Amino acid sequence: MTDPSHSNRNPTASLDRNAGMTAWRQIADRIEADIAGGVFQAGQKLPGEMQFAQQFGVNRHTVRRALAALAARGLVRATQGGGTFVEAKPLPYTIGRRTRFSELMAKAGREPKGELIRSAEITAKEDVAEALGIKVSSPVLELVTLHRADEVPISMARTWLPLPRFVGLDATYRKLGSLTRAFARHEVSDYTRLSTRISARIASAEEAAHLELAPGRVLLVIDSINVNQYGHRIQATRSLFSADRVDLVIEQ
Question: Does position 4 have pLDDT exceeding 50, yes or no?
Answer without folding.
Answer: no
